[in-house]
Amino acid sequence: MKGKLVAVDLDGTALDQGKRIGNKTLDALLECKRRGIVVAVATARSERNAQQYLEAICPDAAVSSGGALGKVEGREVYRKTIPSKTADDLCAHLAGRKDVRYVTLETDSGYYVNYPREDFPGWEGIDTDFSTPRGEDALKVMADFRPGGNAAEVAKRFPGVMPTAYAGEGWVSFSHPEAEKGKALYAVLREMGIDPMEAVCFGDDMNDMGMLDMCGVPVAMGNAIDAVKEKARYVCPGSDEDGVGIWLWENLLA
Predict the structure, then answer these.
(1) Phi-psi region of 18 (alpha: psi -120 to 50; beta: other; left: phi over 0)
(2) What is the chain's alpha carbon radius of gyration, rounded to the nearest angstrom?
(3) What is the DSSP letter of 146?
(4) Distance CA 64, CA 68 (A)
(5) Please, is 97 exposed, middle or buried when counting C-beta atoms within 10 Å of its C-beta (0-12, 13-18, 19+)?
(6) What is the mean pLDDT of the segment spanning 11-26?
(7) Number of Cβ within a 10 Å radius of residue 146
């Protein structure tokens, strides 16, 4: 099998449940780079929150904040943000809703949060109650909805943003409608002169569907949701089993 680019999601894909990159996966990604295969990371995390993994993998390209940003060798080639007024209004609205526990705002200047530190040990963030407008465009706004929470109602109130839910979680991401991994990765491929049909992409959740749909070799994790498995050409072992590494060694690097 041939491929010019390998793109991997982080959480639930390259990372196990303990948020570690498996040795076989890391070795395979580094071997791809040694053989001249472009390696890209495509994550819902901000660059800041993904930094330790980016330093370990040293990817040639990175899609972060769920597709709001796309970079090639550190150079920005894609950006889709929520305008500042909409972002401020959205955060204030979410923070005042009874069906929302916590809200986070991700901008170029930092990661703003209103959750108790003891509930999220080790997570970084700048404390705020979102009562004061920040006046910055948002890469992404996240809200932790209580069971039965109505994210669809929020989306109706703010038609300029796109909600994305995560399997098995109460968290919902609100972003620019074109802040999507597939679109950002396509911009990366175009910048690097690589045909999407020559790309291998690994994912596990709804926000990976776009890049799996546009690539030539879509690979779902064994722990992926059913919709992702149905979209994929291959299903590899789960993230806790070093599935990305196993598939790469047995197929692309064989």
Answers:
(1) alpha
(2) 18
(3) P
(4) 6
(5) middle
(6) 96
(7) 12
pLDDT per residue as tens digits for the range 125-156: 899 999 999 999 999 999 999 999 999 999 99
Residue 49: count of CB within 10 angstroms of its CB: 18
Burial of 50 (0-12, 13-18, 19+ CB in 10 A): buried
Predicted TM-score (pTM) of this structure: 0.92
Question: How many CB atoms within 10 Å of residue 76?
Answer: 10
Domain ranges of the chain: 5-80+179-250, 94-175
**Residue type at 3?**
G
List CB contacts of 102: < 8 A, sequence separation 6 or more: 113, 114, 115, 119, 143, 144
5-80+179-250 adopts what CATH topology? Rossmann fold (3.40.50)
- pLDDT of residue 122 exceeding 70, the answer is no
In terms of residues, how long is the chain? 254
> How far, CA to CA in Å, does 190 sit from each of 5, 144, 164, 215?
12, 35, 25, 12
Confidence band of 1 (pLDDT split at 50, 70, 90): confident
User: Helices 23-34 and 243-250, interaxial angle, to 10°?
Assistant: 40
Query: DSSP label at 238?
Result: P
- For the cut 80, the answer to whether the pLDDT of residue 118 exceeds it is no
Looking at the domain that runs over 94-175, which CATH code has it been given? 3.30.1240
Exposure letters 200-220 (e unless 16+ CB within 10 A, then b):
bbbbbbbbbbbbbebbbbbbb
Q: Which residues contact 159 (CB under 8 A, 6 or more apart)?
A: none
